[in-house]
Fold this protein.
Amino acid sequence: MMPKFASGFWQCKLRYKTQEELLKVAHEYKDKGLPINVIVIDFFHWPNQGEWKFDPKYWPDPKGMVDELKQLGIKLMVSIWPTVDVNSENYDEMNDKGYLIRSERMYQDSYHFMGNETFFDATNPGARKYVWDKAKQNYYDNGVRMFWLDEAEPEYGFMYDFDHFRYYQGPALKLSNVYPLEYAKAFYEGQKAAGQKDIVNLVRCVWAGSQKYGVVLWSGDVHSTFESLQKQVVAGLNAGLSGISWWTTDIGGFTGGNVHDPQFHELLTRWFQFGTFCPVMRLHGFREPAEQTIEHADRMFNQPFGSGAFNEIYKYPRPTYEILRKYLFMREAIRPYVMEQMKEAHTDGTPVMRPLFYDFAKDGQTWDISDEYMFGPDVLVAPILHAGQTKRDVYLPAGEDWIDVNTKQTYHGGQTVTVDCPLDTLPLFTRASHPLDSLLNFTVPAEKD
């Protein structure tokens, strides 16, 4: 069962570079009275890949940081990579114990991203325990309870010849797709053994059964384009039908979004509206223009990997911010409804986000529609998926009357209606027989002084 905190807003970017920077963002959200439930520390907060700990130069007091966030009512999620660099303090020991993925020919290293790395062998129970023990010592014991299990494929880069790699459980030709499940299992079992009950971790890919291990699937490093946004709707629907009810996307896309570009502001707004009605609402991205240096007190640090531009909603131009703020509070208003759907997902696997035909199978037209969806049984969402679009046609399934949330007008089902959708408006409908009052009565709160 998803814990209540995870149904709220997740703030993330590539990447917060220091403890100081992250805490400043958390306080700014709270000072502005904006709902925020989770904030994320992305990759390269470590000294070397495969050390699973904070670099003390940039993160001097992890426990104090977690405690401060807790006082603000914010959970911390930390990125984990399964890569082990040859220069890692753990490489030799893990290699000697057989805890690394093996290669059949020549070179042992299998990935090259800011170094020479090999992946830990998640199919090996000893390796799973070893990695968890490191994470427990350096993260969990400092209060971290959420983990972002990135690179879960694993991503072999340009050398993914299946006959080249061998796992503890057998050759990659037979086993490759089970890796993300075993990776998630390593952390789930460790957290459970430590006494944690509300386990929610983020992964980039899953395998059959991954949902047993408390994972939220996200759709990966997608591009900041309307074409990519269109694909997210279909991806989310397919994930739900595949048994993965906990699903999210990088709101705004991951790459290519320039924070100074009005065209990106439009895309971000439409994606944010869509994200409001996703199972998990998570803002993330590698925004342009990128930064390569870290300012810290009176010093300047050079890092192997810098950071994207800002990605906090209050830093965007005022017209964009006002719309994002509106939908952030709309998500907050419907969270009791979201939690009802999470209970259904938990008890019988019902997708939170699902195609129209899931609830209206007898209406033949619903089987051919992939740009609208039901969010739970009572809300029909028709996201805006094209640049410059200010009107769209919406099919309303037969057998029900529908209330337009924006205009309060009621329509009979079994017809297509054309609705206005200026930039601040997401077409939304609720069943007349079972209306969602938190949407129909929603108003945007006044800004905090």
Remarks:
- Residues 4-218+285-316 form a domain with the TIM Barrel fold (CATH 3.20.20.80).
